[in-house]
Design goal:
about 270 residues, alpha+beta, 2 domains, eleven-stranded mixed sheet, 11 strands
């Protein structure tokens, strides 16, 4: 009731009980919402801090993993170089070590058996004379990897001229000769970096570009399947890969015609 100090009649205001109950319920619900919101916000802040910590730990683990992979690649490279030096020095390597059943054989540079269909790289016996070495026509794949760019002998819409095949592979991946022949060029090239050319009979030559290390020299006689280089990213290269060319009588030919392309994963 409202009573004034004037001659006006007193005024009364009645509040229903249901309204008081509704107001009480609203206040209680509001308090619960505020408390729940505060607790949720605190939990979100805690989770955000935990996510930041996990991301930091993940970056550390990725860096550690990359260092481990780098050490593994360096170890594999050192094993291959050691084997090559032992071979050049005339030191016999244990047959058990060279066996494809030995898991260390692949990383040490021994030629793995990928079957004649996939990787025709069996050593031929005989003397060091070229005419006594079988397999002088290029056949098989020179490296295990993924085809990132194919053969394009002429310019076309949206496609630049490319006289070989690019095979993407991690740096240090073994590169093998695909035919017997004599090393014609093994040196630095402005475009292809550490560049290797092997001259075969019947007018064939194979070209290997962007290598990290060359393991043969000019004049060396190589057999099909012999380790000749380690892949890299040298010269004008945007990513680690091997540029592989086959030329017949000076004319570039499609390397895909000389290998089982299905054994290489095609990269769109």
């Amino acid at each position: 009731m409202v009573v004034t100090d004037t001659t006006e009649q007193p005024r009364s205001l009645r509040v229903p009980v249901w309204l008081l109950k509704a107001l009480a319920v609203f206040i209680v619900v509001s308090v619960i919402v505020v408390v729940y919101g505060a607790l949720t916000y605190t939990q979100l802040l805690s989770n955000a801090v935990l996510v930041d910590d996990l991301q930091t730990e993940n970056r550390i683990l990725r860096d550690y993993t990359e260092r481990v992979h780098s050490l593994e690649r360096d170890l594999a490279t050192n094993r291959i170089l050691l084997e090559k030096m032992m071979e050049l020095a005339g030191i016999d390597v244990s047959p058990e070590f060279m066996s494809s059943d030995n898991p260390d054989a692949v990383s040490s540079g021994a030629v793995p058996d990928y079957s004649s269909q996939v990787f025709q790289q069996q050593y031929a016996g005989g003397t060091d004379e070229l005419d006594s070495i079988s397999g002088s026509t290029p056949a098989g794949i020179p490296i295990l990897g993924s085809v990132s760019r194919g053969f394009a002998p002429g310019e076309s819409e949206g496609v630049r001229r490319h006289l070989g095949m690019d095979i993407a592979a991690r740096e240090g991946t073994p590169v093998y000769a695909t035919a017997a022949g004599v090393v014609e060029f093994a040196d630095w090239d402005e475009n292809f970096g550490n560049y290797l050319i092997i001259d075969h009979i019947d007018g064939y030559k194979t070209h290997f570009g962007h290598n990290r290390v060359l393991l043969v020299s000019v004049g060396d006689v190589v057999r099909r399947g012999e380790l000749v280089a380690l892949s890299g990213n040298t010269g004008k290269s945007s990513a680690p890969h091997l540029h592989y060319e086959i030329r017949h009588n000076g004319e570039p030919v499609d390397p895909a015609d000389y290998m089982d392309v299905e054994s290489l994963k095609q990269v769109e």
